[in-house]
Amino acid sequence: MPTLHPHAQKIVTRARRRGAHFSAAANLLWIPQAAVIAHVLATFLIGGAVDPVGAGVAVFALGLMRALLNLAGQRALVRAADLEIGFLRRRIARQEAATLIPSRIGGAGALAALSTEKLELLRPFLLRYTPARHRVALVPVIILAIAAWYSWAVAVVLLIAGPLIPVFMALVGWAAQDASARQMEEVGSLTDILTDRLAALSDLRLIGAGAALGTGFADATEKLRARTMAVLRIAFLSSTVLELFAALGVAMVAVWVGFSLLGEITWGTWGTPITPFGGIFLLLLVPEFFQPLRDLAAAWHDKSAAEAVRAETETWDNDARENLTGSGSPARALPFTGLATEGLMLHRSGDRLKFPDLQVAPGESIALTGPSGAGKTTLLRLLAGLDRPTGGRLLLGDTQLAETTADQWRASIGWMPQMPRFLARSLRHNITFGPPLDPSLTDLAQLSPVQSSLPRGDPTQLGETGAGLSGGEARRVMLARALHHRPAVLLVDEPTADLDAVTARDIIAGLLGHVVHGGTLIAATHDPNLIRALSREIRLGE
Amino acid sequence: MKHLFAISLLLLRQEKRAFALGLALAALVLAMGVALLSLSGWFITAAAAAGLAGLGALFNVFIPSALVRFLALGRTAARYGERLTTHDATLRTLANLRLDLIRGLVQAPYRQAERLRASRVLNRVTSDVDALDGLPLRLVLPALAGLAIVTLSTVATGLLAAPALGGVLLVGHGVLPSLLFWHGAGRADKPARRSAAGMQAMRSRMIDLVTARDDLAAFGQLRGARHHFMQAIRYHHRARSALDRFDRGIGFTLEMIGWSTVAVTLALATQMVRDDTLLPAQAAIAIFAALALTEAVAPVRRAMEEIGQMRRAASRILPMLECDTAQRHDVSLTAGPVELCGLELRRSPHGAPLFPPLDLKIAPGEMIAITGPSGCGKSTLLLAIAGQIHPHRGHVSLAGHRVETVAPETLARHLAIVPQRHALVAGTIAENLRLADPEADEAALWQALEATNIAHVIRARGGLEARLGFRGAGLSGGEARRLVLARALLRKPDVLLLDEPTEGLDGPGAARVMVGMRAALPQAVILVAAHRPEEIDAADRRLSLSPLQASH
User: N or C: which end of chain B has fewer CB within 10 A?
Assistant: First the structure.
């Protein structure tokens, strides 16, 4: 569990403790309420007079206090939950925005799930389980003491039934856990199966596999249902044990009290026979002896869910990942007088890449070529300040790429990755990150067919798949984005791969346009047309 | 609310008997709980009265004490039975709902089904279905059982104690909580919707932050993206706090309604005992029933927070369950030509045409390569030929029948498209292949695998029973490609439409696959959206699509 800030931890713990105290206090108020009700009924029996309004007001006033205590307790617990969840969420955002290395818990989907709905699972745990556990430690003990004061027989019943419950529940719980672990290994959840089938649905129906898909799904879910029921049959036993003991406890106390009051039973008290008040009071208190245990059992699922989330958060947190150089903020570009590398190398997971020294003058256009695996993409990433070299240095003019200069360095560079990726924002934001589009850029990147193909032009919201943009259109958008801030150096990775001839020609024209306007270009490519159009070729891996 | 009601009916109807049994057991559990406490209260009070009057020996203790024990054990057994029955019925229902969803989407317009490929849409659909999971178990059954037991207790208290006391229970535990629920369900909707929107924003911004991390860093936008996510946290926090405040308010009101009911019952019963119109033991029945009934009202609070989400989920899911019922014909499309007549396609209803009107006739046994720059509409053309999207003008006919008049099942029997993506699901290789033809024997499967030059790979991986992970994880791009091509062959279609079929294969491999496919289906019309020389060379003819530039 990633520890909270000591200060935050203190606030969370205090709020949680306060919430638990309030909730236990509310439960204990049942004791005076029960006393009022028992007093009323007992007074009837001896023929005494009770003030109806007084009795009603007493129960109501105590009920109001209970409700207010519950309200205050909930407020404190919600605050504790908000603080803890908010802290973890912000921490995930800060860490994920500081590194470029993927987390070992998975990709974007896993992190999005962790930071949103999974962290929310801590809420029911803090709101329901924490106070229930506190009540279990306090309320039954006090009720047991009261019961013992009236009758040792009732105390013995409670003393036997109470502690036996957790033992049986634990036994049954183990069996259930074992069965459910076995199930989880064999099949995923219903949601996983549905997601898997729905993702393939639109393509499978094209080969007429729609009906077969439904049948296969029905089989898979039926298997899952049978297995889940096998687990539930055992799991429900644990709550049944609890209810059985609670019900038997109440029944035994009721029968003992009834027989004692009739005078049939004379044992079980400390000498004087039980009074009608004592008997009714006990009967009212006994269910409340078992109630905290029942609450705890009902919240048990919340606890295991929260533990799974905490374990995943811990795995995420224990992942020592290298941070990005610099902060990733906008900065003023450095004046460009040439780019150079000296003894650049990168060792990562067994791979050892050593790069030739580069000297690139302003206005040059360079093709990086070489077999796949030679490190073309890696070199581009190093030049863009997206990876830390294991050795050597990078120079932009006289400025070395370092922690303090990295943001300025990247501001001087335009970046066009091989795989287009879109933010779930407008086309315009995907190109300029805010400002309006520059018309000259629209011409340079041949963007107008893209704009006209979208239903609402450049304010159209794109999704991760680019709202139906084709591969060529996506590449044009990537080019426009790379050129928008007028970078001195443009780094592009396989800009024409998988493109048809027309689009490839347009992209090459856009890249050369940048060079004609005095820009510098470094392109990793194996496209002969592009290599021919550039001024120099550097081969890697030789 | 209309949609929620419709979905509830749909869910309950499918497992009618199990739910009726579950409901009866749930009501029995509540009734036994109330009876246990009331009977115990009556028993003790009556016993005390008899004891005080010196009549203890005459009091029949056997029946009440046996009844108390019976109720205690019976309640526990009924509870176990109820939980098993309703959970089993719910699991069946959930599976049925998902199956209906799949069946509905299989028949939905192609563009709607296609949207599921984006994980945002997919997430929304699955989380909507998940939200509906609680509908039978947490909303419908507790509400029905609660109302039944409150009514029953009202009648019992009215008969055994006094009608006025029964009336107090009905108002305090039945009418007022129901009114609170109707009032609250509407008011909870706005903060619940905002909280869900905040959650959605966080999810989508985290996905952006992680998937586009490199690009965001390169453009100095990483800190901005983090800030954007933090804004969503704050928005969600505000909405969540409002929802929590509301929830606390409801909890407080519900608790106070409960205590008021107990207080009024106590005061009224006391007054009646004083007026000698009620025996103390009868008063005990009413008071204990008032206390025990609070258990029946408890689910109101939880249901209220969820109902808004369920309602929105229901209104989004319900339309997806409905099947297209337009009149279609079952005809034979075997050995007929594919004809395009004045076909004109647009990417969106108001967009510009993708290419000039097309006229073309393709005979059985012919293979056509469709070429043109990316974005010129090759994939769209294949979808139109398959009848998945409607042309803007003109029409497509298969063996003389216009494609939009052919029943979808007929179309599926005679025509197959292999899109660019590899649609594979978790399961064995054989299961994935048999999606196309559930009847195919092993020899047929191997034959198809041979045709697409992938049999040796599958053999090396352990044969047809080798398992794939979710979405076909475990195969490389080129292997998955050849597997989905083999699957399409198993259908033995008369018209086969291939979208860049050899993407990810090397040159000689691509050529072998093209030859293998042609040989496997000698009489079929094959159309290939082609962009590689191997694909174009394998074709008999070439249809070149020249894009119409938008007039800007």
Answer: C
Cα separation, B5 vs B8, whole angstroms: 5
pTM of the predicted structure, to 2 decimals? 0.81
Q: Is B84 on the interface with A (CB under 8 A)?
A: yes
CB B56 within 8 A of CB A265: no
Q: How many residues does chain A have?
A: 542
Q: Which residues 6+ apart lie within 8 Å of A271 measured at CB?
A: none
ipTM associated with this complex: 0.89
Is the domain spanning B338-544 CATH 2.102.10.10? The answer is no
Sequence ranges of chain B with CATH classification 1.20.1560.10: 2-194+226-321
- The CATH homologous superfamily of the domain defined by B2-194+226-321: ABC transporter type 1, transmembrane domain (1.20.1560.10)
Q: How far apart are CA A77 and CA A436, in angstroms?
A: 46
Q: What angle separates helix A190-204 from helix B119-132, to the nearest 10 degrees? A: 130
Chosen for mutation from B219, B256, B291, B410 (greatest number of chain A CBs closer than 10 Å) is B219
Longest dimension (CA), chain A: 112
E strands in B303-398: 338-344, 358-362, 367-371, 393-398
Q: Cite the residue boundaries of each domain of chain B with CATH code 3.40.50.300.
A: 338-544
- Distance between CA atoms of residues A432 and B221, nearest Å: 11
Task: Report the C-alpha gap between A25 and A139 in whole angstroms.
Answer: 9
For tokens 């931890």, name the residue.
A9
Q: Does A49 touch chain B (CB under 8 A)?
A: yes
**CATH of the domain spanning A339-539, picked from 3.40.50.300, 3.10.180.10, 3.40.50.970, 3.30.70.20:** 3.40.50.300
Of B106, B291, B352, the CB nearest to A210: B106
Give the closest residue to A480 by CA, choosing from A507, A500, A453: A507
Q: Please give the interface size between A and B, counted as residue pairs whose CB atoms are below 8 Å apart.
A: 463
